[in-house]
Amino acid sequence: MLVRRDSRTSKLDGHLMDYQRLSSLSEDELSHIDIAELNLACAVGLPRSSDFDIPTCLNVLDQWTSLVRAGTKRAIANRHRFPDYDDLSDSEYRVLTMFSVLYRHVGLTINTDVLDPNNVYDGSDSRIQFIHAVLSDGFPATCCTAPVVFAAIGRRLGYPIRLVQTREHIFCRWSGETGERFNIEATDRGYYRTPDEHYLTWPRPVFHKAIQEGLFLTDLTSKQELGLFLHLRGICLLWNLHVEEAVEAFHGACELYPTNYFSRNEYLIAQMLFAAKHGDKSQYSLPDRDPVFWRIPEHCRNWNQQLHNRAQQFLNERRRVYSTFSQHSVSNL
């Protein structure tokens, strides 16, 4: 069973975004850091994140946890009055109560637009990827933020809740030491039993490669969770063409979550943009490549074509600056 945050020692004092130091922490060390604290730390300095305060956000989560704890105590005492839920395990009933408290009493809302697979994902707004605005401004939660809120509160209550990825979506899973295991779709307004098979096609059909390599539908470790947050940070920075910071974020993501080939793809793009912008041989650039002739590889376009088109436009703009470079191909990248 996971320990509660109030018994943990934060490793995030000092410079919050010291990626090298965070990446060097062991799985056990990272598991003792509040998942909400890590998520908020990865949002520091992003567009539309300048006004939030981490301690204040964490206090809000503590208050919500107290409400869920009290609500759960009452719900369990009165469970005999609701026979419709007799088929739920004790763990499922606790999660059902968490939904009720957060959505009916706390007033948590969901941004349904980002759940529509027909809408184009816009990663430029940090409020979509990180929980700061949900906690400080009542911003509607998304499939990136609602699962983190559920996991943070659940872990404060001692629940074994992990994050899980599928294509363009994050959900939660109860993974108990006794073997009890069930999925929690945090963007629903209540608890419904949702099998793994549902996430093979929703919100989009998954890539077979991602299943084979264990990227989708598996519980994320603490290192992988932090790697996911750094990936989301890099996406936001890349959308806003903050190239230098995007490279640093994706570098950290790849260190923590090396099997996430989406991070590797975006890291490659960020490296290309960095070199095209600076034309130097920094630690993050690829000096043997010529940014004048770089193209976003086709295999990188599967995740979000609009983002990659934006990146390609940036590269095209840099053509005129470095038009004397020798031509190279990126086909062997």
Word description of this protein:
The chain is mostly helical and 333 residues long. It has two domains: 5-212, C8orf32 fold; 222-319. It is built from 13 helices and three strands; from the N terminus they run ααααααααβββααααα. The chain has helices at residues 19-24, 27-31, 35-43, 54-77, 90-106, 126-129, 132-137, 146-156, 208-212, 222-239, 243-256, 261-278, 305-319; strands at residues 161-166, 169-175, 181-184. The chain has a three-stranded antiparallel sheet, with helices on one face.
Quick description:
It contains 13 helices and three strands.
Helix-strand blueprint:
Blueprint: H1 19-24, H2 27-31, H3 35-43, H4 54-77, H5 90-106, H6 126-129, H7 132-137, H8 146-156, E1 161-166, E2 169-175, E3 181-184, H9 208-212, H10 222-239, H11 243-256, H12 261-278, H13 305-319
Antiparallel strand pairs: 1-2, 2-3
Question: Can you give keywords for this protein?
Answer:
333 residues; mainly alpha; C8orf32 fold; 3-stranded antiparallel β-sheet; disordered N terminus
Secondary structure: helix percent: 40-55%
Q: What is the CATH domain class of the largest domain? A: Alpha Beta
Based on helices, strands and strand pairing, what is the structural class? mainly alpha
Sequence of strands across the biggest β-sheet: 1-2-3
SS strand fraction: 5-15%
Determine the mean pLDDT.
84
Quote the CATH topology of the largest domain.
C8orf32 fold
- What is the total number of structural domains? 2
Topology as a string of helices (H) and strands (E): HHHHHHHHEEEHHHHH
CATH architecture of the largest domain: Roll
Radius of gyration: 21 Å
**Uncertain ranges:** 1-17, 281-288, 324-333
Number of extended strands: 3
State the helix count. Answer: 13
State the oligomer: single chain
User: Biggest sheet, open or closed, and with what strands and sense?
Assistant: 3 strands, antiparallel
Approximate shape: globular
What is the rounded distance between the termini? 43 Å
